[in-house]
Amino acid sequence: MEERLSRQERKRRQRDQPCPICRRVVPFLWTCPCGFQICDRCLRAEAWGYTCNNLTWTCPDCGAIRSF
């Protein structure tokens, strides 16, 4: 029978995921509802392609405008 994970263990499992772009395991990923994910370092490095005002970023997959 599968044991239930505590809330803290579930959050830790969600946090420690690799960035799909740079493949580094990071504690936080910017996520769009369509499923696109990017780490903060990759987003900042390629900011010219994702944002024009540094207040919002545009998902390259679905075109949704997301706030920082």
Overview of the molecule:
The protein is α+β, with helices and mostly antiparallel strands and 68 residues long. 28% of the residues lie in helices and 24% in strands. The strands form three sheets. It has a two-stranded antiparallel sheet with strand order 1-2. Strands 3-4 form a two-stranded antiparallel sheet. The radius of gyration is 14 Å and the shape is elongated.
Key structural traits:
single chain; two-stranded antiparallel ribbon; 68 residues; alpha+beta; 24% strand; elongated; 3 helices
Tally of individual domains: 1
Percent helix: 25-40%
* CA-CA gap between termini: 41 Å
The portion of residues forming beta strands comes to: 15-25%
How many β-strand stretches?
A: 6
Give Rg in angstroms: 14 Å
Number of helices: 3
Question: What's the topology here?
Answer:
Elements: H1 7-15, E1 17-18, E2 25-26, E3 29-31, E4 37-39, H2 40-45, H3 47-50, E5 56-58, E6 65-67
Antiparallel strand pairs: 1-2, 3-4, 5-6
Give a brief rundown of this model.
The chain has about 70 residues and is an alpha+beta fold. The chain is about 30% helix and about 25% strand.
